[in-house]
Amino acid sequence: MPKVLNGVFGNWKVSGIHTYVSGTPLWISCGQNFFGAGSNARCSFAPGVSTGQIPLINPAWNWSHDNIGTTALGRIPYLNPAAFILPANMTYGDTPRQMSYLRRPWTVNEDLAILKNVVIHEKGNLEIRASASNAPNRVLFGAPNTTQSSADFGRITGQGNSPRTVQLGARLSF
Hints:
With about 170 residues, the protein is mostly beta strands.
């Protein structure tokens, strides 16, 4: 390739890190203090959960950004509040410590970088780099509130990732 064209189109490198992870398992607490167990005592399943009549995920939930944020009318909880109840006094709840079948939203992320090496002379080199974390600027949902006694129970009230971050850099070697 001619020197001028090679200077523009040659010596490019592209790299990427792709992260695709299922959400971590959730556990539901009641905010009660049984037998000195602290405020993280487990809840119980409502009658009908074991038979499948009452789903754990709210059937009205959708992935709309309108469902994320602080408590307000119209915000739909991710978890079904009807699926969990306060256990009877002096008894422990029957929900497991972690439910592998009930998870927080997944993580999908791409970090990209592009760099160009420019040869200045036989012992001189200029490297120009641009990198972006969360390059497509996706919004990933945070974990839902898992305290059954909370007014925000089941609601996702925040974002689980950071917005896109771009870094530019140059390095001169000689």
